[in-house]
Design goal:
The protein is mostly helical and 308 residues long. Helix content is 78%, strand content 0%.
Length: 308
């Protein structure tokens, strides 16, 4: 019997998802390096992230798929996805400029909790009291991480929370759009939207004299190479994630997103000497446990609906 076209190789899907999650924090390490050692503003780094993503992926996409890559049935919705993704990336890169990588990731991982809440409120998804309790407990874990960071970094410690909210809106919009457009078209249009948004944000922010939007070109061959790597990782890692979701179901792949904390902690310690203290590890464990509990409850509910 032939395998079905969807979810026919869960092991390969899990391997791809785990690999992508371990690689993606390299983007944020590059962003922190550019801000710390190359004196490039987070706004400029975010623009290059989306610009070089298009530079690295568009020729390849057009070579294989032609103009179909840009034929979106819902172009404005996809461009809005890009704007939300661009704004979320900007907040994340500003946060990693000032805060340790692992701290930012730990706070950012309230995003699955936010997405669950948004789905319940606006899409009518059934979320029982256990998952609502897990959401509140997860936010409590985030507060444990935020509190010492807030004393050191002030309001900047809240940037990962706003980033998580914008990214959950981005993912929520993915669900709202559904299958109207192919993942390839959606990603390409989102890249265009993110690039356009960041170009406008840079012009406005630099005009207002905000330091985190200072305009600059790469100051060295190393800086240019790192920005190209940043765009390449951004484009192709997300393609790998799309491929993973075609090989395995969401409920099986979702826990692998927490692999990002592993590589973020390793990169943060190796490159910048940052390592979470005990209280932050407790907060991280609470956030991760809450997210995994929500994923587990969703799988239990899905099974009960199938059996009924």
């Amino acid at each position: 019997m032939r395998n079905p076209p969807e979810h026919h190789n869960p092991l390969q899907g899990m391997a791809l998802m785990a690999g992508a999650m371990l690689v993606l924090p390299a983007m944020d390490a590059i962003a922190k390096y550019m801000a710390t050692f190359e004196a490039m503003s987070p706004g400029q780094v975010t623009f290059y992230r989306f610009f070089f993503q298009l530079v690295c992926t568009l020729p390849f996409l057009f070579l294989i798929f032609g103009r179909k890559a840009l034929h979106a049935k819902r172009p404005w919705m996809n461009l809005l996805r890009g704007v939300l993704h661009g704004a979320a990336s900007l907040l994340f890169f500003v946060a990693v400029k000032y805060m340790p990588l692992a701290d930012v990731f730990a706070i950012y991982f309230v995003e699955p909790l936010m997405l669950t809440a948004l789905s319940a409120i606006f899409l009518g998804d059934r979320v029982g009291w256990r998952r609502w309790m897990a959401i509140f407990v997860g936010f409590g874990g985030a507060m444990i991480v935020i509190q010492p960071s807030y004393e050191i970094f002030g309001l900047k410690a809240l940037l990962p929370v706003f980033c998580a909210f914008l990214y959950s809106l981005y993912l929520f919009l993915n669900r709202a759009i559904g299958n109207a457009d192919s993942p390839l078209t959606m990603q390409t249009m989102a890249g265009i939207g993110g690039t356009a948004f960041m170009a406008a944000a840079l012009i406005v922010g630099n005009g207002l004299g905000v330091g985190d939007f200072h305009l600059s070109l790469p100051s060295s061959a190393l800086a240019l190479a790192l920005l190209l790597i940043l765009g390449t990782i951004s484009g192709y890692a997300h393609m790998i994630i799309v491929r993973a979701f075609r090989l395995a179901p969401l409920s099986l792949l979702a826990p692998f997103q927490y692999f990002e904390i592993i590589s973020a902690t390793v990169l943060g310690y190796a490159l910048f000497g940052d390592f979470p203290n005990l209280s932050k590890w407790i907060g991280i464990l609470i956030i991760v446990a809450s997210g995994l509990f929500i994923i587990w409850r969703e799988r239990v509910q899905a099974r009960s609906l199938k059996s009924s």
